[in-house]
Amino acid sequence: MFDIPFLLVLVPGVCLVATVVTAALGPHILGPRSHWPVVVALVIAAAASGVLVVQVHHQALAQWGEGRPADPAAGYEKIVTLWQWASIDDAHYAHQGDRFRIEVALRADPLTAVMLLTVTSVALLVAVYSIGYMAGDPGYWRFFTYVSLFVFSMTMLVSVSNFVLLYVFWEAVGLCSYLLIGFWYQKPAAAAAGKKAFLVNRVGDFGFALAVFLIWTTFGTLNFHDTVDAAGHIIGGVLGQSGLARPEFWYAPGWTLSAICLLLMLGACGKSAQLPLHVWLPDAMEGPTPVSALIHAATMVTAGVYLVARCAPLFVASRDVPPIVAGIGAATALVAAIIALTQTDLKRILAYSTISQLGYMFLGLGAGTLAGVSAGMFHLVTHAFFKGLLFLAAGSVMHAMGGVIDLERFGGLRQRLPITHWTFLIGCLALAGFPLLSGFFSKDEILSAVYERGLDGRDAQWYYVLFWMGLATAGMTAFYTFRAYFRAFWGPERIPPEAGHHAHESPPVMTRPLVALAVFSAGLGAVLWLSGALEQFLEATPSLVFLATHPAPWVYNVVEGHGVVPVAGTLVALAGIGLAWLLYVRQPQWLAQTVRVLHALGLYQFSKGKMFFDEAYQALVVAPLAAFARTCARWDHALIDGLVDAVGALPSTLGRALRPLQPGIVPFYALAMVLATLVLLGAMLW
Amino acid sequence: MADAEVALLVNYLVVGAALVALGAVGFVIRRNLILMFLCAEMMLQGVSLSLAAWGRYYNDFGGQILVLFIIAVAACEAAIALALVLVLFRRRGSLDVMAWQELREAELPPVVDREIPEMPAEPPPAWPSLPPAGRTPCVPREETEFRPHV
Amino acid sequence: MRPLELVLLPGGVALGAVGVWMMLPGAPAERRAPGILLAVAGAALVAAGLPGLGDPLTSALFFVLCGVTLLGAAGTLAFRSPVYAALSFGLSLLGTAGLLFLQGTQFLGVATVVVYAGAILVTFLFVLMLAEPRGRATYDRVGFGPGMAVLCGALLVATLIPTLASMGRKPEGLLRPPPPADARRQGVLASQHVKQLGNELFGRHLVAIQGAGVLLLAALVGAAVLVGQGRTRLPAPRAGQPAQSPGPNQPRPSQGSDIHG
């Protein structure tokens, strides 16, 4: 009954059913009870994901027992093919001789199982929270429809075993993001933010599409897994075990492979808001806060991380791309942290923090080792929980403050919102990397992997520099996180007038998910790290097994932990927290002086103005396109409309020319008749 | 002999053609409704001549018979044409065909005659006047030469 | 065509056309007289280009009658006074009747004189005289598009005459040879040919005759109806005053109230 294929289909399927039911029955029948189908579906999905994780673990253990396998291609994967979507007999690539086929195939392997569990559990908590947050909104049923549609798309995204289907669901989550960001579409800012998100993602999606094309021409197949054609020959998948068994032939390095990886990275930059395509995420905070928590903290933005993790063999084999990936990640982390230092909108601080942490994940993935990839995934999981917690707590604050989320307008909410305060504090500690909370472990895993690569080997100096960037970013993260915390919860109590009678703790339906998330944020990291479960579990993924065991010199193996990194991380985090406490609680006058100095140096405006990325894009991209569009409109109006109008004016012009033939003068008509007779006569006689 | 017949035929046909052409020209030229009609009758005369010539050439009475029918139909046509001319004349008070231009296109201006001062102004008619009873009337000289203008 | 014909016929037609154009009522007085001469010259040229009639008497009669006809026709075009033009048309009709007599179709000639000249022309003359007793109308003194009209007429004739002339020279081409002369003398040229005409008319064409009769009746009725429609109904006369009806020849402004269905 609970075998893996059934579970694999159940998890997205139940979400799809919930979408349809809520969309159909929501407007009139369910009304304020529209959350029930979605919550029930998410409970089922989360439970099924949990069972799936257990099942996959058992199967993997059963396959190769304890310890690591010797065979680099012997990970565990189970493919469930539902149906064949498209097949073109005449299109095949000579490399392998198989024709173009797209099959709807779901795969169960450790990486997918981890993603599914994360997505569904966070989604469940967010959905429960939304019952309270979105209560009374006229689009209540629409919200839950979109949320369950999103969960369906995301679960399918991490489950499919084919690049084309991945692209399809990549777009689907982008669509849901657009729908949810612009949920309050009457607000012009929300509509504009949705459009911006979609358009910026489009740039990344373009790169992804080009990568898919190149994959087809390079590998002759679009599946991850190996398939068998009609004659019984094995058609190797891009990440299939037959390819992983002979990587020198399969992943021949060269510009093609590097191009594929860079284009995939471009797609990931778009979806995961990395430099230079990060500009949409802060604006996406126009959407409801649960949306920010679910999509823009925990799940959708991690799709890019998942993609790079999934295609790790490609990246590692290309040899030149992992440092670029790591560089992009580190640069993004640093830039976002610098910008977050001076923002006053709490949600925007958290948004930049998300961008920064995603940069960390890419930094980890860019290390090119199994340690790096599993560290990146570890950080993904922990980040999902503590960032989701932070967003939901911010939403709780916003709910209490009557929609105001500007830190300059409220403060000192410790006594008034106790549960929100404690959960927010736990989230901040996790984010800052306070020892023993989950963020500490995952961040240090990443920094360790980068440090190890920075010791020796290919591109060592580069990784060393990145390590220091990451460390500096960790300090800044701690600083701005606690800056926000102190400003919001410490100091004299200030309530803005919009709060009215709302300024009290949120109802239990909102606080219980906060507590749940806080528990996970606090304990999950320790549990997973100490037991090593996640790393071992992820190792069983075929493509990651390859990273662990292949003896090729450009594959870096797992390294031991280094003591210096956690110590440095802790010191830096405590320094950041301490500085924030000093400036915002203890000696506020030093804050004013610091700001003056920074202002004089111009750094303050640089950071506050988001480093003017939006203005640069507006001038370089948007304005020329708008001018082009206006020119085209003028051409259309003048030339095409002119042509059509001319054609339309033709009959009347013709009529006007022919009008003098009807002057109403009888002799004239007689003359015309004589002329006609003449012509007739001439025709007859000659 | 045959040549003479052919020559006769050809000459008559030429005369008929000339009458038809003159009739056509006259129909277009003239603006008096009645004169237009008369020019149409002239065209019918030309046709009658031709038909009669053909009938004589081929020794066929058909030509003459057709001419008789033409005459009959011309009479009907004259009756109707006259009736119509009378009705039109009552409306406008003139026999000018250019008085009827309402069926022209809306934007075109009507054709208006320019002044043609050619005929000399005729002298006012000298109506005879009677002197009082018993007196001898003094008759001016032109009285004897008076003639109505037609 | 023989080269002489090639010159004479089109030249004659052109000359005649120019002459007719000069004669038209819109032309100034000093142009009208030479126009007559030119027209006559053109006609003469054309006549010279056509095959001769053989018998001099027939020839002379034909040319005289032809001249009368054509001169009358030209007069219908040229006279500025409408009554003169109508009378000139009467002259043309007489010439036509004479030509018909020359053909041997005496009945037709008589019918032409009686019906056309006697009935139709006279009726129209009366109407003309009643309508315009003073003869000073502007519109009788201009032509409409004279140049174009004359050109068209000239082209009309010019296309016909050469064809006819060439037909005359080679009768076997376009023309069937005529029946023998004695057959003709028994037929259309017989002394009792009117009797034969009547037999044929009321024999073969009886239905057509009846149809023509019906047509005449319809025309009669129609004319009466049409004319009766336009008369204005005046209010009933008061006691003591005679009923007044508007005279037929007084100009009346055209109003919608004139119409009574």
Description:
The complex is a heterotrimer of chains A (686), B (150) and C (261). With 686 residues, chain A is mostly helical. Among the domains of chain A are: 224 residues, no CATH class; 73 residues. Chain A has 27 helices and four strands. Chain B has 150 residues and is an all-alpha fold. In chain B, 59% of the residues lie in helices and 0% in strands. Chain B has four helices and no strands. Chain B is extended. Chain B starts with a helix and ends in a 6-residue tail after the last helix. The mean pLDDT of chain B is 84. Chain C has a domain of 40 residues. In chain C, α1 runs antiparallel to α2, α1 packs antiparallel against α6 and α3 runs antiparallel to α4. The radius of gyration of chain C is 24 Å and the shape is flat. Classes of the chains: A mainly alpha (686), B mainly alpha (150), C mainly alpha (261). At the A-C interface, α27 of A face α6 of C.
Q: Treating each run of at least 4 consecutive H or I residues as one helix, how many helices of chain C?
A: 10
Percentage of residues assigned to helices of chain B = 55-70%
Helicity level of chain C: 55-70%
Mean pLDDT of chain B: 84
Q: Low-confidence segments of chain B, ≥5 residues, pLDDT <50?
A: none
Compact summary:
The complex is a heterotrimer of chains A (686), B (150) and C (261). Chain A is mostly helical and 686 residues long.
List descriptors.
heterotrimer, B: mainly alpha, 59% helix, extended, C: 261 residues, mainly alpha, disordered C terminus
Topology:
The complex is a heterotrimer of chains A (686), B (150) and C (261).
Chain A: H1 4-30, H2 35-64, E1 78-92, E2 99-108, H3 110-133, H4 140-159, H5 163-181, H6 188-219, E3 227-228, E4 234-235, H7 241-245, H8 247-250, H9 255-271, H10 280-283, H11 289-298, H12 303-310, H13 312-318, H14 321-340, H15 346-365, H16 370-400, H17 418-432, H18 438-455, H19 460-489, H20 508-531, H21 533-539, H22 542-549, H23 564-586, H24 588-601, H25 603-608, H26 613-658, H27 666-685
Antiparallel strand pairs in A: 1-2, 3-4
Chain B: H1 2-29, H2 33-57, H3 62-92, H4 141-144
Helix pairs in contact in B: 1-2, 2-3
Chain C: H1 3-23, H2 29-49, H3 56-78, H4 82-103, H5 106-131, H6 146-169, H7 171-174, H8 181-186, H9 193-203, H10 206-229
Helix pairs in contact in C: 1-2, 1-6, 3-4, 4-5
